[in-house]
Amino acid sequence: MCTIKKDKTASARWIRWSGDSAGSVDHTYGNSSGFFMSVYNYGTARLLTKEYTSVFEGGPKCLTFWYKMYKQKTYAADGTIRVYQTYNETHFGEPIWKVTGDLGNVWRPIELDLTSDTDFKIVIEADRRHSTSMSIDDVVITDEKCSGTYSLNPDISCNFEDNLCGYQTDPTVDVDWIRQQADDGMSGDGPDEDHTFGFDYGHYLCVNPNTTPRLSGHRARIISPIQNTTADDYCVLFWYYVSGSNVGKLKVFAEQNNKKALMWNVRGDQRSSWHRGSFQLTNTDDPFRLIFEAIRGSNPSQGAFCFDDVDVLSGICPIHYTTPTPTEPLPTERTWQVKNIDDAGCTFENDTCGYGSYDGMESSWQIMSAYDRTVGPEGHYLGLNKINYNGVRFRTPYIHSTSVSNCLMFYYMCTDYYWCKGRPLSIYIMDQAAGDKQLLIDPIWITNEYKTDHWKKIQIDLPPTNDNFTVVFESMYGRPYIRMFGIDDVVFYDQKCSAVKPEPFKSTIDCDFEGGEMCGYIQRGNRWRRFQGPTPSLGTGPDNDHTFNKAEGHYIYVEASLGRRAGGVTSISTPYIRHINGPMCLKFWYHMYGEDIGSLTVRGKYRLSDMHLWYKTSTPTSEWSLGTIDLNNNAVFDELIKFTFQASSARGAGYKGDIALDDIKLLPNACNSPEPAITHSYCTFKEHPSNKCNYRDYVPNYMWHPWKYQDKTSGTASETSIKISKGVNSFLYADIHEENKNVAIITPEFKYAKRYCLQMLYIIKEDFGLNINFVHHTTSKTLISSLTRQMAPLWAKYTLELETTTPDEQFSIMFEAKIGHAINGFVAIDDVMISKGHCPIPEVMDKIDCSFEKDCAFSTNTSLLNGWQLSDKETHTHKRLPNIDNTYGTPSGHYYFISFRHTQPPTERNFLRTPVVEMTANKRCFQFYYYLNSNAISSLNVYVDDESIKRFPVDPIWSSIGKKGNQWNLVQMDIEQTKGNYSIVFEPRSGGGKHADIAIDDVILLHNKCIKVPEPKWTSTIDCDFESENSCRYKNVRTAKCNWTRHGGKTKTKKTGPSNDHTYILNDEKEGNYMYIETSPPRIPFDSAELSSPLLPASVDSKCLHFWYHMHGNSVSSLEVYRITPALSEKKLLWSKNGEQGDHWRKAILPLNVKRYFKNGSKEIIDHSMKVHFKGIVGYGYEGDIAIDDVKVVIMSCDPPPESPPVNETSCDFENGVTRCGFEENTNEDGSGDDRENVLDWTFFNASSINGNQTISNDTHVVLSQNQSSYIFAKAAELKTGQRVVLTSPDISAGLYNCLHYSYVSTGDFVIDIYTKSSSGKIGMVYALPRRHQSTWRRHRVNILPQEETFTVVFEGVVGRLRTGFMALDDVMIENGKCTTVAVSEAPQTLVNEATEQSKTTDSLSYKITIAFLSVLFAITMILLVLLSIYYWKQLKHPKASDDSTTDNELREKEETDKNAYASFET
User: Fold this and answer.
1) Does residue 1174 have a pLDDT over 90?
2) Distance (Å, rounded) from C-alpha 312 to C-alpha 307?
3) Average pLDDT along the chain
4) Is the separation of the CB atoms in 49 and 40 below 8 Å?
5) Which of 734-748, 863-877, 1234-1248, 1395-1409 has the lowest mean pLDDT?
6) What CA–CA distances, in Å, run from 508 to 42, 546, 694, 803?
7) CA 82/CA 91 separation, integer angstroms
8) DSSP per-residue string spanning 102-151
9) How far apart are CA 953 and CA 1126, in angstroms?
């Protein structure tokens, strides 16, 4: 930074920059790689140089630098650059140089001689406004006087306001150029105002309209002074006015070394407005001068040639605004910018924004200066200068690709029917990768209108692109001339057009004339005057303004006594403003009192019309009157309009005819509409609240009084207001003089929103108070907050977040003073701000150390009558509160306390909150002293409120209940790591007793953790088998729709729920209990029950939650398990299971620890207490009961074991379950994650659980376990059709033959497939078990061909439509090599012959037995069919009368009997 430093106290910053979105380059190198300083964000930025010695000691010095300042958007405010020479870094004095305004996107030099008798620094200060660019470069301070090298000749740049600046008329030509004004009567066909000021008193140069004879071809020529050159390139800028039929030509020449070159020309009528002209001078080594020449056309008696504001700048012109110089070739190649979509729009006011020709015909499209859509008559748009029957095209810069649809919005106008009836406009979108000269084939949009006389809004959705893209505008066909065709206000949005919301209306013409300005209003003749107090003439004019109704206020008026001729008209106009797409209302206050009053007229000027809107001759009163004008003509919707107020004097009138205006306002609604609701209000009461703030006094009857208003400027004040007003300007207050009265004031109405924030200053002393109320149209006032007296009568800041109680209804806020009886009491309010949204985040602190002897920024919830208060000597006399504080141990010390009374409901909550503390990764010790000596059921809770959690914590981190004696008690606790900034909250609870008083003092938050006493050994507090009556202190969450129920035996609904608990499942002598949710009516789908465990103590050891669950039924929904961590205010889902899981208990194991993960992959268990919540959700029917049992927490790791390498051989006899062998069950084979509900677990049968009293004949599982072996099985009746049970082996090495051995049982409607699955997901069929009855164990051996990849073997059983049967697996073994007794085919593995285990003789005998058995079975079946047919025939012949008394249970039993009969019949 070259010893230059930034002022960090300033509101904005200078930053070192290289190029910008507008294509700027630095001055040093003239390219985008060089650097310069630019102002970042809005506000004031400063640069300070090092200290230089005084001129007296160090000699003369010269400061040189280059600067650039221009508006990026036309509506931007002017910026200012200042230079100070100062010896004080905080008080700079007056600037030695400054510049303000839009100077174009070009570098300009400045030289300044520095003179100082003391040592000094240079300060370069910039005030940047919205959408203004400000930059400096090449700052040099030399030890010599400035040479004048960078000082431009002051005469060649001229606005002609003071003189001709050395310009001289050429005496050899026919006509003279003259300097004139519009109001001197000589302008003829010339402009009505100059360009410099835009008023009729400004000066410019015109060809003398009175020179005779006026002949065609006559010339006028004027020559500038000589410009000394200091740079290679110069840009010449000027403004010209050429108007009239066949007016002729205007030319500009540059002369160097007696050689004259035509640089610019224009011909014919250019409409009645000022236009900007420019041209470039290059390689200017020698001095030059300019020559302006006008040549009269074929109609010399009409028309005018004028020019103004000539400026010569060093550098390159930003753009050619008019016809290009004939001698300057057009560029053939250009580099297209790439812009973000938000920056790709253009209003064409300053330049083309990087837009250009698509086909090389640059001259066809041109920036036109006329009545555009953006700003009106002085605006610019992109129009057609030439046409081509093959079409003319222009394009945007490239726009960065987006992955979403975008919206293109622009306005276009086509006023020529013959041109517009062709295809006047088409839109194309082209990718950058395809090059700059793609063939335009398929447009994305074509206009479907022939002709439009106004600017028409077009919105087009652009498709997403994978590459940067450009938008091409094409105009086709037409005829050899065009009345008007143009495009303006191009905007891109990064969303669909349907999602683009219109910008809210904001009036730019509202004016109360108080700001020292005329609000941009324009007048002719300067006869409207801004004034205050009575006008000079008696018997006319106002005494006060309307805004404040004071003589100090301002208004504008026309003085009747200052030489106004009878019938004369004096007008003043607002700036242009856009009419919304709907009705509008113009409101203004006027004063027309006096016997010589003329009339006041209001007119509206649109592009195509000038409308008479309002007229008034006089008023019979000397008061201000309201004028309103409804604007509801849809023909002018979305058009620009300006309003003109015309004051006319009466003919033969005297001096009593002053006309005044004040408080002009334009509203986006009809005049009879109510005042629109607002979302923000800030009232400082510097004026009466009914004026600026639109507050209104609430005085419904004589029992109500308004608030008193103390205005410090008024010079009068009561004794009370003098006490309050120290350091405060103006405010509202109420005191003892309003005793026995009600005092209230109401804000304006606010739009509905869920939250608003109220911030204000207030004072309350003695027994006075303040109520804050909601006020609605449909309801009476509702109390929000009640503030009571303060311990010290000082201005206190109050912040309250408001939650609106009536949805979709507007509301106001009422401030109601509660008047007490104390003589010295009062209540006051000031600086009231109400804004939509949350209240601002308080300042974040890094520590807390508060003894309450001074303000520590603790905040209290004072919405209750008995809130937290600061103690004083009177408090110390209270028998239930300490008579001394803890800090000093004296009555003069302070502490915070709260006193509950029996009138306060015990459910109300009242918080004392510390300031916000910044988050930390370390434990911090929090300590405080508290006093609790009230009833036995009062308590004090402490919470950590983490801002990142977005909700208040449910459980405290510390709590104390009951009396603790007449003493201060010390508490220490560690605050754990938080995710965000946090505050610590004290909450007292009265417990519903008659009295409760609690106090705290000396609150400290240390940087280190507390020194703790060794804790006892950790034990789980949530283990439960639900056999005790209190369910181990598990509780239902109140906010849930239904409850968990403790139950034993079967649930009341059939086909769902467990038959017995899990704890005593194998004990026939005892029936245990479990917890379950009942899903029968009145429960409805998605109702939920949530069961909360007791608080589990913190532990740094790994903890696993074990529990058993039962989910059986056709309409089972889901079971979810959550971890609740109060210290983190966290509720995290740990586990969930959905749908039918079979009619048996299943076990779940899941980790409980709160872990913190580090970047290196390591993790740390965080020491937090927690709760476990079991949440059951109701499904679509009554067969959806869900149960849990035997919850237990075990100190062990639940992390999955590391993956094992593939093995060559493996086996499993299932004696210890499935997973102990390395096998896995319930695997989602397709990997999609969508089929998990259809893949269920196998059931494990443990042979050691067989009871000695069980008989082999009545238990299938015992029959299959005669050899005391365990196995896995699945019952079809417990599954749904299509559901699967899956068993997967460990990974097996590739490249070898393998033999698969297994034992199985299969009966009924089961399909069993065995296949391999490679590591890449490839499936290979091994064997499909035939669907036949196999009710005893059978042993198989199957060959598996060599595989190319590591693979697993998968057993999959699928339930068929009938849902009958049983399937079991045992003794699975995979070994290397081929099976010894099985022939292996090299064909694809679809089916492998089973090993022969019996001789052919045995097979023959089995065949005969089977045939005999089937024959007997067939005969029995036929007999049953005949008997059933006879039975049903008799039923049809003699139907039995229905029994209306049959109960639902009997019907269900009959239905069940019929189903069993049908099943027997089917068998």
Assistant:
1) yes
2) 14
3) 79
4) no
5) 1395-1409
6) 21, 20, 20, 33
7) 14
8) ---SS-EEEEEEE--SS-BEEEEEEEE-TTEEEEEEEEEEESS---STT-
9) 6
Q: Which two tokens stand for residue 897?
A: 């306390």
Rounded-to-integer distance, Cα 1359 and Cα 1366, Å = 10
pLDDT 10s digits, 247-265: 888 999 998 877 888 888 8
Helix, strand, coil % over all residues of the chain, rounded to 5? 10, 40, 50
Distance CA 205, CA 167 (A): 10
3-state secondary structure 511-577: ECCCCCCCCCCEECCCCEEEEECCCCCCCCCCCCCCCCCCCCCEEEEECCCCCCCCCCEEEEECCCE
Which pair of tokens denotes residue 1418?
Answer: 């067939």
878 pLDDT tier (thresholds 50, 70, 90)? low
Q: Which two tokens stand for residue 236?
A: 């010449």
Phi, psi of 653 (to 5 degrees): -80, 160
SS3 string of 839-900?
CCCCCEECCEEECCCCCCCCEECCCCCCCCEECCCCHHHCCCCCCCCCCCCCCCCCCEEEEE
Taking CA atoms, 610 is separated from 514, 584, 602, 604, 682, in Å, by 30, 17, 11, 6, 39
The answer to whether residue 611 scores a pLDDT higher than 80 is yes
Structure tokens at 427: 């839109």
pLDDT value at 417 more than 50? yes
Which tens digit of pLDDT belongs to each residue from 1033-1044? Answer: 999 998 888 999
Nearest to 1264 by CA among 1303, 1226, 1300: 1303
- In three-state secondary structure terms, 277 is strand
**Residue 255, SS3 per DSSP:** strand
Other CB atoms within 10 A of residue 1377 CB: 11
| Cα distances (angstroms) measured from residue 854 to each of 710, 850, 968 | 29, 8, 20
In angstroms, the first-to-last Cα distance of the chain is 97
Contacts of residue 197, Cβ cutoff 8 Å, sequence gap at least 6: none
CB 1356 within 8 A of CB 1290: no
Nearest CA among 573, 561, 562, 620 for reference residue 595? 620
DSSP 602-646: EEEE-SS-EEEEEEE---SSSS-EEEEEEE--GGGTT-EEEEEEE
Please give the Cα distance from 1179 to 1182 (Å, whole number). 8
Alpha carbons within 13 A on the beta-carbon side of 1279: 29
Q: Which amino acid is at 1104?
A: C
* CA-wise closest residue to 1263 among 1242, 1245, 1278: 1245
Q: What is the pLDDT of residues 1175-1203, one digit of tens each?
A: 999 998 888 899 999 999 988 877 655 55
Which tokens sit at 788?
A: 């009571």
pLDDT in tens, 1255-1269: 333 345 555 665 557
Contact 1360, 1281 (CB under 8 A): yes
With residue 1376 as reference, give the H or E element that holds it: strand 1365-1376
The two tokens of residue 945 are 């409120």
3-state secondary structure of 1033: helix
Contacts of 931 (CB under 8 A, 6+ apart): 881, 882, 895, 897, 964, 967, 968, 969, 998, 999, 1000, 1001
CA angle 91, 94, 99 (to 5 degrees): 120
158 DSSP assignment: B
Instruction: Please classify residue 907 by burial: count the beta carbons closer than 10 Å to its beta carbon, then call 0-12 exposed, 13-18 middle and 19+ buried.
Output: exposed
Which among 1059, 1089, 1078 has a CA at the least distance from the CA of 1182? 1078
Q: Which of 945, 1312, 1348 is nearest to 1126 (CA)?
A: 945
pLDDT, tens digit, for every residue of 738-786? Answer: 667 788 999 988 888 888 999 988 888 778 889 999 888 655 788 888 8
